[in-house]
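#lab-general

N.A. 3:47 PM
ok so I finally got the sequence cleaned up, no stray characters, all 232 residues accounted for. can someone with queue access submit it? mine expired

B.Y. 3:52 PM
send it over

N.A. 3:53 PM
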Amino acid sequence: MAQHIGIVACSTEGAALCYRTVCTEGERLMGRYRHPEVSVHTPPFVDYVRCFDQGDWAAVGELMLASARKLTACGADFLICPDNTIHQAFSYMESRSPLPWLHIAEVVAESAQRRGFRRVGLMGTKWLVESEVYPERLAARDISYLRPSIEDRIETSRVIMEELVRGHFEPSSVARFQQVIQKFRDQGADAVILGCTEIPLIVDDTNSPLPTLDSTCLLAQAAVRRAIAAER
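B.Y. 4:20 PM
back already:
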C-alpha cells in the first residue's frame, strides 16, 4: 500500500491547494480515483501569525511539532508542510519529530537544478524572503538567487497576508506580482520561485514573465512519489 501522507498545515488556502494537488497527482500516477491516504492538521492561523509578528520561531517549531504528533497518531508515515515561511522553524523541531519530513525548499532546489536554472528570483512573505530557508539549499546546488527590493517585499507580503490567505484575488495584486517577476528577469533571473503556498493561486506559467517553480505543486508531487514508492 502507498504510504500515508501527513500535511502540517498553516494557512487555509495554501493547505487546501496542497491537499487538492496531492489527490489529483495521486490519481494521475496511480489510476482513476486513487491517491495516497492523507491527513491534515492545523491550529488556528492566528497562533502562527502571532509568532511571526514576535519573531518567535522556536514557538513556531512547537506548533509544527504539535501537529506532527497528532498526525503520527492518525497513522501518517511521513510529513510535509506546504507553508514556506514556517520552514524557518525547521531546525527547532526536526530532531524531535516523531516522523521524517520532506523539506519544501529542498524539493524546489532539486527541481531548479534538474531543469537547469542557474539564477532564480525568490517570492514570498517578507519573513521568507529575508530568511535563509531557500538560499542555503540553492547555494548547495550552485544556484544563485535574487530577493525582491524592500518595497516589493513589503507589498507582496501585504498581498499574501491580507488577500491571498483569505482567498481574495485582486487584479491589481496580480499585476504587482508580475512586475516584481519582470524585475527579476531584467536582473538576469531565468526562473522564479513561488515561495508562498498561495502565490500559485494568482501566478503560474501562463501569466508569469519567467518560468515558475511552484513550491506547493512540487512538494505535493514529491510527496505522492514518495508515498507510492512503498507500493513497489
